[in-house]
Amino acid sequence: MAQPHQTTAGLTYASAGVDVEAGDRAVELMKEAVRETHKQGVVGGVGGFAGLFDVSALTAYSKPYLATSTDGVGTKVAIAQALDVHDTIGYDLVGMVVDDIVVVGAEPLYMTDYIACGRVVPERIADIVRGIASACSAAGTALVGGETAEHPGLLGEHEYDVAGAATGIVEADQLLGPERVREGDVVIGMASSGIHSNGYSLVRKVINMAGWSLDREVSEFGRTLGEELLEPTRVYAADVLDLARTFPVLGDDGAQGHGVRGFSHVTGGGLAANLARVLPRGLEARIDRSSWEIPAIFRVIGELGKVPEPDLERTLNLGVGMVAIVDPSVADAAVRHLNDRGSNAWVLGTVARADAPADQDPDYVQGAKGVDGGAVRMVGSYA
């Protein structure tokens, strides 16, 4: 019988590819940035087994609902890795997670993150977490914990993936959603900062087939292709919550107010599919394509890859990252309010009674992502 091979030195965790000391150094480099996100309610510091948050203040709520969301960044991390730029991908993570929570009117309380990598490079991990912490500060949420895991043999030495989860709170009678939306409401768009974090599988396929390198200078962008593709996701949380507070859903007497009815975060699936999720059955949002000009990055990807317009609309945000649905009496004021805060906003369309669509109408979406809700009808041509 063959004898097992004997080694002169035993195996260690480090020789298996996991460097515990590197992980400890990464924590030392990131902990100050994490600490700066801590607000009233955070208990303890960095490094505990669990992040703690004091919820005794929630006793002031009549009927509090907790809201939670989890997400990742997708294949945009491949761009960050190729460019060796890691301090912006955190904005993409926070935007994907926290801005889903504020859609229902919930204030994000805290967030946790998870980073899986092939090898812990302390400076790289710290850059990622600093970006997450900076975005959390912008969103008004605390980063209370996280985990970095080394997966040698599963991920390449320079590869990593990120994910996160957040929890928020909203008073039950302030909850926003389809049941608030009325015929005649106005749909307001808020500009995206670029592609954000959805559709990169299509985008990367297009540029690879075209043979474009990330360091290619593109005149339409005024910078390199890589810089344009790595533009961080805009985090809307602060603007969205401020708008909801300024134009509340309920009046002083507790009756339905003339304010914000709901929001939609435009992520995977594009504008129509995500907006349809927050509309009630029987109503449709009529979105005027001519109300905005598609940013250069989307036009370039569409032309370079000969991507059909319907596919672009179903995959990318095309310049609209967040949507508000408001009572018509406050629509103009709401647009001004958002613009005063630096959130480029404009009227996209209106909510009307749903009309039966023509068979297989590519401009019409009814229900999406498992929600049997309202519909969105795209009309006109892009500016």
Automatic annotation (TrEMBL):
Alphabetical keyword list: ATP-binding, Cytoplasm, Ligase, Nucleotide-binding, Purine biosynthesis
Keyword Ligase: yes
Gene3D superfamilies listed in its UniProt record: PurM-like C-terminal domain, PurM-like, N-terminal domain
Catalytic activity from the UniProt record: 2-formamido-N(1)-(5-O-phospho-beta-D-ribosyl)acetamidine + ATP = 5-amino-1-(5-phospho-beta-D-ribosyl)imidazole + ADP + phosphate + H(+)
Cell location: Cytoplasm
Metabolic or biological pathway, per its Swiss-Prot or TrEMBL entry: Purine metabolism; IMP biosynthesis via de novo pathway; 5-amino-1-(5-phospho-D-ribosyl)imidazole from N(2)-formyl-N(1)-(5-phospho-D-ribosyl)glycinamide: step 2/2
InterPro entries, sorted: PurM-like_C_dom, PurM-like_C_sf, PurM-like_N, PurM-like_N_sf, PurM_cligase
Main location: cytoplasm
SUPFAM superfamilies (alphabetical): PurM C-terminal domain-like (SSF56042), PurM N-terminal domain-like (SSF55326)
Gene Ontology CC annotations of this record: cytosol
GO BP annotations listed: 'de novo' IMP biosynthetic process; adenine biosynthetic process
EC number(s) given by UniProt: 6.3.3.1
Example GO molecular function: phosphoribosylamine-glycine ligase activity
Broadest EC class assigned to this enzyme: ligase
PurM-like C-terminal domain: residues covered: 182-353
Residue ranges constituting the PurM-like N-terminal domain according to the UniProt record: 62-170
Residues forming coiled coils: none
The family this protein is said to belong to: Belongs to the AIR synthase family.
Full protein name: Phosphoribosylformylglycinamidine cyclo-ligase
Native source organism of the sequence: Rothia koreensis
